[in-house]
Amino acid sequence: MTVSMEENSKIQMLSATSKDKKVATDRSLLNKYHLGPLALHTGLVLSCVTYALGGAYLFLSIEHPEELKRREKAIREFQDLKQQFMGNITSGIENSEQSIEIYTKKLILMLEDAHNAHAFEYFFLNHEIPKDMWTFSSALVFTTTTVIPVGYGYIFPVSAYGRMCLIAYALLGIPLTLVTMADTGKFAAQLVTRWFGDNNMAIPAAIFVCLLFAYPLVVGFILCSTSNITYLDSVYFSLTSIFTIGFGDLTPDMNVIHMVLFLAVGVILVTITLDIVAAEMIDRVHYMGRHVGKAKELAGKMFQLAQSLNMKQGLVSGVGQLHALARFGMLVGREEVDKTQEDGIIAFSPDVMDGLEFMDTLSIYSRRSRRSAENSARNLFLS
Amino acid sequence: MARFLSLHVLLIGSVVLYIILGAIVFQMLEGEHLDALKKDHMAKIEQNAKDYVDKLWSVAKRDRDKYKNVEDLIKSVKEDTVDDFNDYVDTVFYAHRAVRHGYDEDSPTWDFANSVFFTTTMLTSIGYGYVAPSTFGGRLFGVIYCLIGIPLTLVTVANVAKFLSETIFFLHYELWNKCLEWKRKRKGEVEADPLQPMFGDDENEEEILDRVRLVRFPPLTVFFFVFVYGCIAAWVVRYWETWTYVESLYFIFISILTVGFGDIRPSPGNIWVTLAFVVVGVILTTMCMDVVGRMYLKEIHYLGRKLKSSNPFYLLREAKARRRRAAMASLLAQLAKGMIFAHKDYNELARKKSKRKKEKRRGSHVLPNEKFMFARLPPDPPSDCQVVSTSAYSVRLAWAPPFSPDPDLTYNIRYRLKHNEDAKVRELRGIKGNTVEIMSVDSCSLYEFRITAHNKFGESKAVYLVQYTEPQLSPQHILATRLNANTIELTWEPPYKKSHEVKNYVVYFTENPNASLSEWEKIPVNGRRVVFPDLRFDWFYMFSATAVFKDGQRSPLSRALFIKTDKIEFHKHCVGHSKTIDVMDSICEKEDNETTALLKRDYVSFAV
């Protein structure tokens, strides 16, 4: 019994030491590689991906039963229309031209509906088992092109419940996705800026503008080689996609993952470029109309001053100097009017103490006593 | 003012002109092609239909004599003409596939209204796709048109959105001020100085909008505003359509969020109204993204740098510090603009004030109200807090007033016994002076005092003081005053008990911090005041006092005081010591009274 107890205690001690080592290694890893900001950005991206996948599942579950219902209805309507046409033809051959005209118009009107066109294509034209419009991959393309507001319109919700869900989904998802893309873009822009020098901002702007022009051409070439459309159509499609126009008039054969990556990278690139180049234009136009030529430069310098004040001397000193600056600013405005204006704050002079400077035991550690650190008596007293 | 609006109008006008020119070019490039395409497909349909009918007739004539029964004849004719019928139907389907929405009664064509609708929704990146360029020239022009037009349109929309957001900030600030005034009236507080008007009538609109930027706008209000706009636009647009409200709401939101599926299409008569609502909605949505997204984007981006500490209080403190930093940076930017405007409008200001000499002068027109400048910050902690003196049942405290944006400062003091966990915390509120005497304390106890400054925007951080109270029989409220650089005067009050039996007092003092009490020097004092001349310059001294009663007993020692003398001072007119004064002092014999210094420099000790 004693031997087994000793062995158990040894085993417990070993496990405790291993746990402590494990925790220590985890903390050292976190501190060593600075995983905090990376975890935040990754969390933001993963939340966007989860939102798109969840939305795909949601819309698939809402719209797929509706699609099946509408397909059966469409097939039945097409068959009824055909039988009616055949009956008219056989009953009176003299009126065949009129019957054909009526049938053509009705057929075209029915084909306006996307579900009807889809059912007609697979059931009557190709004589195949009809494919589903709403599969998980098509739903994923749909949700991705909704939150990146491209909106091809290949498929879309038709039920009232689906449409209301889409309104809420877009109102929440579009800000989330745009913030994530802008954050990722800012991260990439900081990398490029750090790599090519902080002082000159023209070089990163030129780099991003060239990338923006090159990206549709390269993607257009890849699409042209893999798909069956021409090069200009490929460039046209990629350009209208990354600018989130999304006409939906071309349907190249792409993998879902390739489509999503293409759209995300393109929109991020557009966001970075417009943020670098167009933000300067917006500020220039916005402030130029107010006759403040150098307001932005001076405001920038004041921002830097505020940051340095806060960082170095703390909030109290910053506020004090800010107050001094404020009085200076006020004096600029009333230079000749009020020369003898009194200050709002008068130096403190207590009545019961006529110039005495004494301190209690605890006040030796206050702010005033720190100024006289060179005093030998203080050192004697403390020692 | 005219020049301020002219640049914005010029930018908007250039965008509108760009849209119209693009519409005309697309109309020229694509209009004929679309018409030709539709005619071609219609001709094909008619041709296939005619072929089908001819085949039907020929088969019927050929097989008329074979079948005696009419039903069998019809069945045979149907079987023979299935291929032609399928060709005819396929032609109809491919025509629909080639030109979507192309064969309705109100099908979209490339007329001027549809072209403008197309280019506007293209440049705002909505992109319905009802009509889209299909020729080589149209698509090539579309590529170039987008590369130039989309940045221009985005800049214009963002500019208008920025103007709109600043106007909303201004209105929000005015409402906030009115709510504050209403609350004050409701509480019955009547201020002695009524608030000056925040903005004068003669001020420029630009300065007002610049100033309003300090207010932090709630993000949910922006979302709510956009949502309400969407609901109203949906209700208005469906007036001309046959849509249900859900369809209209769906169309409006998919449009103003620039998704643009293109499954629902407005009718030709309603196209201008729809375009107006969509463009205004896109501007509102851009304002929403710019205000809220940009604000939170910075916080998200830079918050990741400080996640090393998992302490929630640390994160909360960092967030508060960041908010203050942002407010201060805004203040400095505001000040910079104020300086610029002051410099610009100096002549106008002088001219205006010369006209209004009799009127009451108000503050600078650049910064009319100091409250506004400092953006509702709580005050700083009071500085130079110290205990002036203590007795058995009272403590006197004093401090210097701190900086505060609002001049109406009050102070709150909480105090309790230091080391007693069950001690009751007492509180004094609304102290307006810089000194206070707290009366309800116990003798021979250690007390902790917490002092904070308070204004209407918040409370400052606390300053803590810890102090012992005196015994009841000791001299009370010992106060040390420095008469010269090296002369100290001690004054005190009699004990609370046995005050009539006090014979004299004994004052202990030393200049050696390491000395024990038996090594201290002591002198008897008959009154309640003693002066110590000719002390060492720039040195620490410790003083303590005790009372001697008539029956020979002594009171406990009082609290020790630490006093520091100043450095030596030289005057130009007095260097050295005159022998004449020594001779005069030795000749005249003064009577001994309370003001005579009993201690002389030659004495080492003095026994009672």
TrEMBL record, chain A:
Q: What protein am I looking at?
A: Potassium channel domain-containing protein
Q: Which terms does the UniProt entry file under GO BP? A: potassium ion transmembrane transport
Potassium channel domain: from which residue to which, for each copy? 117-188, 211-280
Task: Give UniProt keywords alphabetically.
Answer: Ion channel, Ion transport, Membrane, Transmembrane, Transmembrane helix, Transport
Q: Name one GO molecular function term.
A: outward rectifier potassium channel activity
Q: Which PANTHER family match?
A: POTASSIUM CHANNEL DOMAIN-CONTAINING PROTEIN (PTHR11003:SF288), POTASSIUM CHANNEL, SUBFAMILY K (PTHR11003)
* Taxonomic source organism: Caenorhabditis elegans
Q: Which family does it belong to?
A: Belongs to the two pore domain potassium channel (TC 1.A.1.8) family.
Query: What are the transmembrane regions?
Result: 38-60, 133-155, 161-181, 202-223, 256-278
Q: Name one GO cellular component term.
A: plasma membrane
Tell me which positions the record assigns to the signal sequence: none
Q: Where in the cell is it found?
A: Membrane
> How is this protein positioned relative to the membrane?
Multi-pass membrane protein
UniProtKB/TrEMBL annotation, chain B:
Residues forming the Fibronectin type-III domain are: 381-473, 474-568
Q: Which PROSITE patterns match?
A: FN3
**For this protein, what is any one GO molecular function term?**
potassium ion leak channel activity
One of its Pfam families is: fn3
Main location group: membrane
Q: Where in the cell is it found?
A: Membrane
A GO BP term here is: potassium ion transmembrane transport
Query: GO cellular-component terms in the record?
Result: plasma membrane
- InterPro entries, alphabetically? 2pore_dom_K_chnl (IPR003280), FN3_dom (IPR003961), FN3_sf (IPR036116), Ig-like_fold (IPR013783), K_chnl_dom (IPR013099)
Keywords, alphabetical: Ion channel, Ion transport, Membrane, Transmembrane, Transmembrane helix, Transport
State if Membrane is listed as a keyword.
yes
Membrane-traversing stretches: 7-29, 112-131, 143-164, 217-237, 249-265, 271-297
Question: What topology does the record note for this protein and the membrane?
Answer: Multi-pass membrane protein
- Give the family from UniProt: Belongs to the two pore domain potassium channel (TC 1.A.1.8) family.
Write the protein's name. Answer: Fibronectin type-III domain-containing protein
Q: What is the lineage of its organism?
A: Eukaryota, Metazoa, Ecdysozoa, Nematoda, Chromadorea
